[in-house]
Structure formats: C-alpha cells, structure tokens
Amino acid sequence: METSDNISVCFFDSGIGGLSLLYECVRKLPRVNFTYFADNFNMPYGRLSHSELIAITDGIFSEIAKLNPSAAVVACNTVTAQCIEFLRSKYPFEIIGIQPAIKPAAAIGGNCLVLATPSTVHSQSLKQLSEKYGRGHTNLVACPDLAAYVEKNINNLSKEGVERLLPEFKADSVVLGCTHYVFVKNIIKNYYGCPVFDGIEGTAAHLCGKLGISDHRNSRGQKISFKGGDYAKNREIFNLILRQSGISSQN
Ligand code: DGL
Question: What is the pTM of this model?
Fold first, then answer.
C-alpha cells in the first residue's frame, strides 16, 4: 500500500458547504494534509455568471497552485458545473469536482428532484448528467436563497427557515446539488418524506482512488489549515463537525 505521509490536498468552496466533504476525506485519509480555501464574503456563488465564476475561481486557484498540491477538490457543485473544465485545462495538478448524485437517486424510480443553485441548474454539465442518468424523470429546480441561508445561520438553522426556501414538489427521491444543503439534509428529508442523496461519499471515494491510497490507519500529526474568506469561522464549524463525530478538534 502506498503511504500518504507527503500528500497534500487543497479544498475549495465558496463558504462552509465543503466542510462536510472535507470531514469525509479527513476521516478516510488520516495521514493526508488538507488546506481548505473559502470565499465566504463573496458567496453565494450560485447567483454569479459563468464569467464571474471563472474570474473568481481562477484567482483562488492561482493561490492554491502556489502550495503545489497533490490534488485539489472543488467542494462546490456550482464551481464544478461552471468552471472545472477551465481549471483542469489551466492547472497542472489533479482536480476533482463534486456533482449531484443523480445516478443512485434516479435508480430508485419515480420522480427525482434535484435541488441546486441557479447557476448549477442552468449549467450544461447538469443537463448532461441528468440526460445520462436521470431516466427521464429528473427535475432540476433552483433554490436561489438556501445556500446563503445556511451560510448565515449555521449556528441557528431552523426547520421553518429552511422549509420556506424549498420548492413544493411530490418527490420519490431528492438529490442535494449544493454542498451547503448537506447541513440541512435531515430537514429536507423530513419535508419531502423520501430518500435524500448527496455526492459526499462518492466524491471522497473518488479522491482516494485518484490519490491511489486507501489509508485507514490512525492520524499521525495530520495538518488541516484554513485559508481565505472567513477562515476562523470555517475552522470553528469544522471543529464542531469533528466534535459531533467524536474526533478531537484541530487547531
Ligand atoms: N456550496 C456551493 C455549491 O455546492 C455554492 C453555494 C453558493 O455559494 O451559492 O454549489
């Protein structure tokens, strides 16, 4: 088995959304070092145009490139949908994106509701994914204000606050097409009363595969850093996720 001691991976999301994916990767790869980049003060990205997203993410990736990472994870569906081809064509390291988990959701049959930001819903890449795996019953619906609600109210999320931002829909499965929505997965599940899917587990497994390691040994001084945006908030929320899962905090 290859060792992961010298591997470093950079993460990027507009805000706190990617922290749940970071958590899953930290758990799966306890000897890889991670740096989480965010841009909390400019979010929501879901309302930005393609060219605005390209300009912003290019700026952040030029900072990521200075760290010479083994790989970068775009922990943002919006940036994956709008910018991943551009980023891959420009930067020399492996870049992994997160996409809505339409395939397993559509496989259970019936009406599949995909919730995402406006920018993701209007992207070509989501349309293609839906045509490929959606079995003709996939509905792509934008939730324009949900990511910003989660970002702003992360310490005070309420059922009423989330439900008023969700579309009415008779769904047999729901796909969370934005990493911020993962924080309110249970509220969404209760509201629609059906199975809810996200791309967290699949993307984390994809990263392990790309790095060529499956390293489940205990952590030996793993380093997790936070840069850009409101890095102190991102670190605090990540430590909360670690504590809730029984893992001790990182400094
Ligand atoms: N968390 C991001 C996503 O997965 C974007 C949220 C936003 O900034 O609008 O799409």
Answer: 0.93
Among the listed residues 10, 25, 76, 143, the single catalytic one is 76
Q: Given the DSSP bridges, would you call strands 33-38 and 94-97 parallel, antiparallel or unpaired?
A: unpaired
Q: What is the pLDDT of residues 23-35, one digit of tens each?
A: 999 999 988 999 9
Edge to edge, what strands does the sheet with 138-142 contain?
A: 138-142, 112-116, 173-177, 196-197
Q: Phi/psi class of residue 191: alpha, beta or left (left: φ > 0; alpha: ψ in -120 to 50)?
A: alpha
Enter the DSSP assignment of 248: P
Q: What is the CA(119)–ligand 1 centre distance, in A?
A: 9
pLDDT at 72: 98
The token pair at 42 is: 């400019």
Query: Which atom belonging to ligand 1 lies closest to the Cα atom of 178?
Result: 4
Say if ligand 1 is within 6 A of residue 46 CB: yes
C-alpha span between 183 and 155 (Å, rounded)? 11
Query: Is 10 an annotated catalytic residue?
Result: no
Q: Is 76 a catalytic residue?
A: yes
